[in-house]
Amino acid sequence: MARMVGLVLAVLLACTAMASANFNQEFDITWGDGRGKILENGQLLTLTLDRTSGSGFQSKHEYLYGKIDMQLKLVTGNSAGTVTAYYLSSQGPTHDEIDFEFLGNVTGEPYTLHTNVFTQGQGQREMQFRLWYDPTKEFHTYSILWNPKHIIFMVDDMPIRDFRNLEGKGISFPKNQPMRLYSSLWNADDWATQGGRVKTDWSHAPFSASYRNFRADACVLAGGGRTRCGVAVGTDAAPGSGVAAAAAAGSGTWYNQELDLTRQQRMRWVQSKYMIYNYCTDPKRFPQGLPAECSM
Ligand SMILES: *[C@@H]1O[C@H](CO)[C@@H](O)[C@H](O)[C@H]1NC(C)=O
């Protein structure tokens, strides 16, 4: 691990701000045999699921910190049994991962928004929410802000969860494994809806979810272990080294961003009204005691 830290700290950082990016340039459809499609000159991406297969895509780039925004419109009607996942993840047994998952439901019943954070291969940090709107009617923006101090989950810019860096207290935090963005639409009717009791109704297939307005204001892993953040894609302008470069990058306000008091209050309000599960209030899952961050 120490070697990895050294390697990452040694990389050059230059930053890349992208306006709403072109899906053709940013993503590869990785599975689903034609069920995932990039349309409208790269402005729209759709995934579909039928009885034979789901589909998925992943980012061409790997990110080491960033503010990632994506607009999603979820499977309409009877979406029970379907899961739309949208997450950042590194590779390997000690991987880090930051998850949004949308668990479908029968017509008229609410989706569950499931979130989780894995550090060093260790997850079990689920928090689940109801949404305050119907996520199948319009596009809504789902964002991950990942910087050295926080992982903040946002829905239409409303913070719903803040996983803080508490390394000083001995709790690991994702900070040196670059992550790709992945998304998929798949059948999980063995567990997803009402604990697996409600099965996918294939007479409604194919199911479809849509994506648009992807934006990554992020540090991107470039060739030779270098990283580029902010500025423009493909330039080597304003390179610097390590953390200082990212902090200095003009677009890098996300890099130091924290929730101010107002936003912390809003988050607490959303959690009090819309959170339906919190691992920190589920001691029976943790016979050895709740995870340490739960008491901080
Ligand atoms: C589906 O609706 C039921 C009933 O309102 C609810 O209990 C459940 O949490 C909802 N979501 C999922 C994913 O089952």
TrEMBL record:
GO terms for biological process: cell wall biogenesis; cell wall organization; xyloglucan metabolic process. PROSITE patterns: GH16_1, GH16_2, PROKAR_LIPOPROTEIN. GO terms for cellular component: apoplast. The keyword Transmembrane does not apply. Residues 1-21 form the signal peptide. It is an enzyme of class 2 (transferase). Contains at least one intrachain disulfide bond essential for its enzymatic activity. It is found in: Secreted, Cell wall; Secreted, Extracellular space, Apoplast. Its EC number is 2.4.1.207. Catalyzes xyloglucan endohydrolysis (XEH) and/or endotransglycosylation (XET). Cleaves and religates xyloglucan polymers, an essential constituent of the primary cell wall, and thereby participates in cell wall construction of growing tissues. This is Xyloglucan endotransglucosylase/hydrolase. It comes from Zizania palustris (Northern wild rice).
